[in-house]
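Listing 4. Sequential folding, example run.
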Amino acid sequence: MTKKIETDILIIGSGPAGYSAAIYAARANLNPHLVSGLEPGGQLTITTDVENYPGFGDVIQGPWLMEQMKEQALKVGTKFHHDIVNKVEFDKNPFLAETDSGIEFLSKSIIIATGAQARWLNIESENKFKGFGISACATCDGFFFKDQNIIVVGGGNSAVEEALYLTNFASKVTLVHRRDKLRAEKILQNRLLNHPKIDVIWDHIVEEFIGSDEPLTLKKIKLRNVNNKCEKMIDATGAFIAIGHDPATSLFNNKIKMDNDNYIITKPDSTETNIKGVYAAGDVKDKVFRQAVTAAGMGCMAALEAEKYLAENY
């Protein structure tokens, strides 16, 4: 049986953006409901050490930070639903959102905070070492690889930028690319190819990540030449996968304005989308920074903008 819930504000997605939006919306007495989605807490739930979130002198754990944000949102009055939104309608207000469990939300405003997922290589050994030598975020984790040999996998702007950034920490960075030329902008290519700390291995893909189990530590990477199928082994204690991100926006196809990469477009200096009363915050709209602190800031912005919208229209 369908359960109907009417609310001032519905937040789709959790993580720093969704939880921050919930905290601010609840404190404004907007009675927010939050549907947490497939991965409650977002990408930080698979991040171990976090050193760059303001306010903590010691290293904290990503899952713990998300639990604290959730607890704070609960204490100020957010109603949580461990569910998945499978349908939205933005044609008229109140907006409609339906979930897998049969809840039908009628909401005067909506904040989309569904995030984005890093693309992975999808090989078995990659899953084993995620968080233990393998990362998809150089600005998040580069600091942990001081004076180490590391690799970056990819050939676009993101891969080249991450490789250049990682030279601030690593003793050597090897870029591994499956083709014989880069897709990155020429100016970035020139910087990379002329950097004394960076080597490039062309026409190779990662075959396997190899390391020790106790403690779980990455030590070597097996590569395979895409042309002659020959294998080679390189020493590396860190690997950064930089083959792109996919925003979680399939639910909103043909419902809201997006760019060519399916990131939701918002107005300048705003989280407002092309639909009045619908806002987007965090990695679902941010392809540049992708940090927990920027996502949290956008969640705050979205809640404040929604509060203003509701005050002016209801």
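-- end of first protein; second protein begins --
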Amino acid sequence: MSETFKTKVLIIGSGPAGYTAAIYAARANLEPLQVLGREPGGQLTITTDVENYPGFADPIQGPWLMEQMKAQAEHVGTKTVHDMIVDIDLSKRPFIAKGESGNTYIGETVIISTGAKARWLGVTGEDEYRGFGASACATCDGFFYKNQHVAVIGGGNSAVEEALFLTNFASKVTLIHRRDELRAEKIAQDRLFAHEKVEVIWDSVVEEMVGTTNEHGVKSLTGLKLNNVKTNEKSTLDVDGVFIAIGHDPATELFKGKLDMDKEGYIIKAPDSTATKIAGVYAAGDVTDKVYRQAVTAAGMGCMAALEADRFLAEHGVSESSKAA
């Protein structure tokens, strides 16, 4: 049987932004309700070693970190629900969201933390070696490839920036692009072409990722099978890691036509704030951030969103009643 829930703070989505928003909102006695979405924990649930989240001297596992954040949010008073929001009315307060389950969620404020997903190539071997040599985040995983040969797939600003970043660790970086010129800004291209560690393979696409499995069952990427799109020549490039940098897709389909977005679908927020164009609606994490895309920056925005929601509720004199109907 479907239920109706009322809350002062409705958090849509999980991951570092959503869980941090939930922790701060709960500690402010706002009794937040968090709808976790189809993949609770977001991108960190498919991340193995995490070394750049503050507070841990040794590498931690992404799924474990998300479990801990969820447990902390619940411990301080967040109600979490396993559901997927499929529709929402932001035209008036309180805001009304509908779940895939048939449940209705009514929020005096809404914090959107539905995140984004990296675009992958969809080639043979990619799923098998994801996290075992195939990554979509150089700033997350580049450290693991000290003095090794890595490849970057893409031709835009992100691909060039990731390739240059990886030169801080790798002995060689090979950028693979399907065209004969890059889309990145000219100044970034100049830096790339001038770098002694960088090589570019033009007019080529990855058709397969290959690797090995050791006696303990641990997989390792060892190479990429390439195809030249102009000559149809096949080749194999030996690499220790590959970084896919062909863009991200924010999970904002639900909010199209309801909130301002940029041309790529990221929610536009006010400067130095998480506030959207609708008073009482906030966006935090990768759903609005296409620059940094880090767990720690997402968590920071989650904190901001909860504090802003708390201030909004205080200014509008919302009552203490927020129990499930």
